[in-house]
Design a protein that fits this description.
Blueprint: H1 2-22, E1 27-33, H2 39-49, E2 52-58, H3 61-70, E3 77-78, H4 82-90, E4 125-137, E5 160-163, H5 166-177, H6 186-199, E6 203-207, H7 210-216, E7 222-226, H8 227-236, E8 240-243, E9 251-256, H9 265-276, H10 278-288, H11 295-300, H12 303-306, H13 315-318, H14 331-343
This protein binds pentane-1,5-diamine (N2P).
Length: 344
């Protein structure tokens, strides 16, 4: 009898173990840009759903692409920009998402749906949008800052920070030369490359997210900087100002997507839906300083944020902006130019 009881108890023990294991919570692998979320939002999602988040960050679309393509980590939600989304769709790397099933689909501003990189909004849900421009220290820069040309002014030798990013650096050179930031003309690319090589002795460093911290600390005078980061860093150092030069700049839309290799697509969708709730999106956007494509979240923002021209430039400025497109095979030419620039 004792033996039977022992066996039953053992059985029960194993059963409890098995049930316990099968209930082990899902871990969602989220891959986002650095400094691009209010991390309390992640905590709240975990608390509400019991889904754990493994959060990793990247500095450029290109870094993210390589990591996703290598497949070491099976990411569930990633946040590429427009042109990179187009490429990933073209290469069959993304899962279709029925974004109309998002509880807060109606909250999204229609201006950010159906854009060229995902014409039927089948793969991506807009997360943030913005520009990059020149962040400068008013105490150190005495010339007017209204043109990209100032990043070639020898007076600011070793006080200039450029982004460590192929498309963005080439875009600055193209804009200065009056060419499209999506140029696929070899002569234009050659001229842009030469301009960036010529600029190199003036550049203190090619930076990622640390650029804004260097600017906040007064370690450099002029930097290429994203709009939202300019909003945040200005609060740390009031001597900093942000300008979109007269030649225009890049306008981008970063969106939430689910890679095909994701093993938790349902939970990924839940996370995207969560981020899209107007009050969550509002909290998030207030923390990181970027512009929201969520109309209802925008309406919840204080008027001084809604009217901040750094985050929300006027239509007149937006008209001078260009969106990157997927370059297809010509990207190889850009990469070659970039290796030469960096290798000099
Ligand atoms: C980094 C976020 C930048 C996003 N802070 C640019 N697309």
């Amino acid at each position: 009898m004792k033996k039977v009881l022992k066996l039953v108890l053992m059985g029960l023990f194993i059963f409890t173990l098995l049930v316990g294991c099968s209930k082990k919570s899902v871990v969602l692998n989220v891959y986002n840009w650095g400094d691009y979320i209010d991390e309390t939002v992640l905590k709240d999602f975990e608390k509400e759903t019991g889904i754990k988040i493994n959060y990793e960050t990247f500095a450029t679309n290109e870094d993210m692409y390589i990591k996703v393509k290598q497949g070491g980590t099976k990411y569930d939600v990633i946040v590429p920009s427009d042109y990179m989304i187009a490429r990933m769709i073209r290469e069959g790397l993304l899962e279709k998402i029925d974004i109309r099933k998002l509880k807060n689909y109606e909250a999204l501003d229609k201006r950010f749906l159906g854009l060229q990189f995902d014409p039927k909004s089948e793969y991506s849900v807009p997360y943030m949008w913005g520009t990059f421009g020149i962040l400068y220290n008013k105490k150190k820069v005495t010339d007017p800052v209204d043109s990209w040309a100032i990043l070639w002014n020898p007076k600011y030798k070793k006080q200039i920070l450029m982004m460590d990013s192929v498309r963005d650096c080439l875009a600055v050179a193209f804009l200065r030369l009056g060419f499209s930031i999506n140029s696929t003309n070899k002569d234009e690319l050659q001229k842009a490359k030469e301009l960036l090589i010529q600029q190199k002795p003036l550049v203190l460093a090619y930076v990622g997210d640390n650029g804004k911290d260097m600017m906040a600390a007064g370690e450099a005078s002029l930097a290429m900087c994203w709009s939202g980061d300019a909003v945040t860093v200005r609060k740390q150092n009031p001597d900093l100002a942000y300008v979109i030069p007269k030649e225009g700049t890049n306008l981008w839309v970063d969106s939430l997507v689910i890679p095909k290799t994701s093993e938790h697509k349902e939970e990924a969708f839940r996370f995207i839906d969560f981020l899209n709730r107007p009050e969550i999106a509002k909290r998030n956007v207030e923390f990181i300083g970027y512009a929201t494509p969520n109309r209802k979240a925008f309406e919840l923002l204080p008027p001084e944020v809604q009217k901040d021209p750094v985050a929300y430039p006027s239509n007149e400025i937006l008209q001078r902006c260009q969106v990157y497109i997927d370059l297809g095979p010509f990207l190889e030419e850009y990469n070659k130019a970039w290796t030469e620039i960096k290798g000099q």
